[in-house]
Write a structure and sequence with these properties.
Order of helices and strands: EEEHEEHHHEEEH
Low-confidence stretches: none
Number of helices: 5
Mean pLDDT: 88
Largest sheet: 5 strands, antiparallel
Shape: elongated
């Protein structure tokens, strides 16, 4: 038996979580002779695992309900996960993007720039930029985003980041510039 887990009670009445590694020794006739067991106290490890699991669940809850889009793309360029806000921004469901190339949300005229950002992030650089993205309905949305490497030790496993839809701000900026240009044009007439 390896890794059998159970609770034991100490003399003082406190419980301790144990992992048992053991084997049975047999005599020449194949009958049970004795057992050899090693007991490992795994109480603290289990507490740490439980705390990590709870922390991970809280983090996932925060990310899932955040007012900004969250995403992660693997080193292979495939979407690994997106949150609900990201889905709403792009009009795409997780099922439509996870496991597919990041390129499905990139306008063709900005594909090279997107590839460059991903390469730089996979090289360890954190990036903040504004970019156009293709929505499910074919329209282009403008987004501000950041990309940062996801590391385990020194190894970069993926990239992740946050994204905000700034399309309305861009439209307002363009309308303001157009209005200013008309006013300047009238002033010169």
């Amino acid at each position: 038996t390896q890794g059998a887990e159970f609770t034991m009670v100490r003399k003082d009445g406190s419980a301790v979580l144990i992992s048992l590694d053991g084997r049975a020794a047999r005599d020449l006739d194949g009958g049970f002779k004795q057992s050899h067991c090693i007991l490992h106290d795994i109480t603290e490890r289990k507490r740490a695992e439980d705390a990590l699991r709870e922390s991970d669940e809280r983090f996932r809850g925060i990310i899932e309900n955040a007012p900004f889009g969250y995403y992660r793309v693997g080193k292979d360029g495939l979407w690994q996960c997106v949150n609900a806000t990201w889905e709403r921004m792009h009009g795409l469901s997780r099922e439509q993007v996870v496991g597919k190339s990041f390129e499905i949300t990139q306008p063709k005229d900005s594909m090279e720039q997107a590839r460059e950002y991903i390469e730089r992030a996979l090289a360890g650089e954190a990036i903040t930029a504004e970019f156009g993205r293709v929505r499910a309905d074919g329209t282009i949305g403008h987004h501000s985003f950041n990309i940062q490497p996801v590391k385990h030790g020194k190894e970069i496993l993926a990239i992740e980041g946050f994204i905000n839809d700034i399309s309305e701000r861009k439209q307002a900026d363009e309308a303001l510039r157009a209005s200013e240009a008309r006013q300047i044009g009238r002033a010169h007439v």
